[in-house]
Amino acid sequence: MSTSGLFRFPAPLTRVCPVPWALRLCEKLPLLSPGTVATLVQAAGKKDRPALLSLDEHELEEQFVKGHGPGGQATNKTSNCVVLRHVPSGIVVKCHQTRSVDQNRKLARRILQEKVDVFYNGENSLVCREKREAEKRKQERKKRAKETLEKKKLLKEQWEASKNVPGEDCRF
Amino acid sequence: MLRAIICGLGWRRGIWGCAFSSWQPHQPPAGLLSATKVVSHWTAVFEEKGIPEARESSEYIVAHVLGAKTFQSLRPGLWTQPLTPWQLQCIQELSSYRLQRMPVQYILGEWDFQGLNLKMAPPVFIPRPETEELVEWVLEEVTKGPRMVGAEGGPLILEVGCGSGAISLSLLSRLPQSRVTAVDKGEAAICLTHENAQRLRLQDRIQIVPFDVTLVESWAHLLPWGPVDLVVSNPPYIFHQDMEKLAPEILRYEDPVALDGGEEGMDVITHILALAPQLLKDSGSVFLEVDPQHPELVGSWLQSQPDLSLHLVAVRRDFCGRPRFLHIRRSGPQRGSPVDAWPGRQPVRVPG
After folding, report:
1. Which of A161, B2, B104, B176 is deepest in the core (most CB within 10 A)?
2. Which residues pair with B230 in a beta bridge?
3. What residues of B are in contact with residue A11 (Cβ under 8 Å)?
4. Is B7 or B67 the better-scoring residue by pLDDT?
5. pLDDT tens figures, A120-153
């Protein structure tokens, strides 16, 4: 029985060993004008938050810093940084948030997903929209707080005015 | 004692790098130092001394002293704030261990596995990142395969060679109904697994038993804890002739018994497989982490042991594309014989 027939590759993450490509860390992303390029997967559903454009694993290249050496018990490496590249857009994410390669892979995908969304959907991307909404809510809170303060001030002035009887010493 | 003197004098002086430089090798330059600068300093020191993973080691040590698990996860404001003399002293001390090639996990005294924080202590084997994938595979099979959760909970799991308890405790935490029997030959491993189980409040669902799987005469002691749904192990699988090639981090600090698998790296593996049929339920599974040369060797060995009724059903690669994990299944009782004929079954003779 040949062992090749027994190999079963885990879905859905591809197992790519160190790929020799130049590393580019793109922090500033070019924003395309709304309406161009990709279709956005809008999962209307019950959630308020529509789904992000999902990433196709075949369009990703992944590099683990630990690709070298025999691996397993024979190696003790602590560098579990994951570098993930979205080939069509060229966006690269480097994640070393946790001590787990697996967690970093998942986080890298989530971060990349958001960046790709911004890349293709610009102002319409989820990230930008949520930012605008948060800013809007903040401004509304500020406005309400200001109004409340003014009301209190007015009430205080009125109360103080009613206290003052003509003829007594009082400050204006 | 000497360290206390250095600490005391350094603290009173409040200055680094003056008259006591000969007592404190490699200390950073005097002045206000931020986390980022200190990381760069120690990275350079480690590189100069040929310490592998110079930057990563430095980052982990500094992050640890600042209370974070990784440097990247630190609040960005902390990267540029000056460190206190106490923090600098701690970093100096931990870095001196790294200069002795102590693994970072032992320096920090803790490490993460599958999202769980575990205490680490030499010489107990440090869980490797590949092994997280072994746990993931087991979880996949448990959730999709035949139901292993019965009236009394489940699945029932046996782990051979528990070390720090990484595999057992991560399975317990992800499978709330499961129960584990964890065994190890090493006393330090037994203690550390106990400690980690308590830290994670999982002690009620695990029993930790000193046990040497290569002592066939002791197998009978485990039978009362069977039959189990799963046997899981990351057994010592390094080929004996490769042991001397291991990095100083491993050779100087980790228990060689946890690594050395004998001539073909198969000694402990074959014992586990020979024991498994006596402890597994029908269609129960064995999940192993192995050396990339083992899938073929194990396949052949199982074929040479038809009495075991074990079959290699799948091989899975690790994140570097190396065949690393095996799923072996027991094919059920022999025709006509009862399922739990424990006392009557003779242990299979194991090679070597």
Report:
1. B104
2. B157, B285
3. none
4. B67
5. 888 788 888 888 899 999 999 999 999 999 999 9
B116-171 per-position pLDDT tens digit? 999 999 999 999 999 999 999 999 999 987 777 766 678 999 999 999 999 999 99
Q: What is the pLDDT of residue A167?
A: 59
A98 and B69 in contact by Cβ < 8 A?
yes
What single string gives the DSSP state of each residue in A54-68? PPPGGGEEEEEGGGS
Q: What is the CATH number of the domain that holds B270?
A: 3.40.50.150
Q: How many residues does chain A have?
A: 172
A1 touches chain B (CB under 8 A): yes
Residue B206 contacts residue B170 (beta carbons within 8 Å): no
Summarize pLDDT for B228-247 with one digit per residue, the tens: 999 999 999 999 999 999 99
Helix (H) or strand (E) holding B193: helix B187-199
Last residue of a domain, one of B47, B82, B108: B108
Q: Do the strands B310-317 and B280-289 form a parallel or antiparallel pair, or are they unpaired?
A: unpaired
As a 3-state breakdown, chain B gives helix, strand, coil percent values, each rounded to 5, of 45, 20, 40
Kindly state the average pLDDT of the residues A16-35. Answer: 34
Could you give the angle at the alpha carbon of A63 between the alpha carbons of A61 and A65, nearest 5°?
175
How far is B339 from B322, CA to CA, in rounded Å?
37
Tokens 């074959």 locate to: B270
Distance from CA of B73 to the nearest CA of A (A): 5
Taking every pair of C-alpha atoms in chain A, what is the biggest distance, in angstroms? 112
Asked if the C-beta of B299 comes within 8 angstroms of chain A's C-beta atoms, the answer is yes
Which A residues in the span 14-53 are in contact with B, Cβ-Cβ below 8 Å?
15-17
CB distance A100 to B116 below 8 Å:
no
pLDDT in the model for residue B20: 39
Range of the domain at B54: 1-108
Report d(CA B240, CA B298) in Å as an integer.
17
User: What's the domain count of chain B?
Assistant: 2
A7, B236: Cβ pair inside 8 Å? no
Q: B125 with B104, same domain?
A: no
Instruction: Judge if B82 and B46 occupy the same domain.
Output: yes
Residue pair B199/B228 in contact (Cβ under 8 Å)? The answer is no
Hey, is the C-beta of A67 within 8 angstroms of any chain B C-beta?
A: yes
* pLDDT reported for residue A63: 80
Contacts of A2 in chain B (CB under 8 A): none
A36 or B55: which carries more pLDDT confidence? Answer: B55
CATH class of A57-122: alpha beta
Q: What is the pTM of this model?
A: 0.76
Retrieve residue B92's tokens: 């100096």
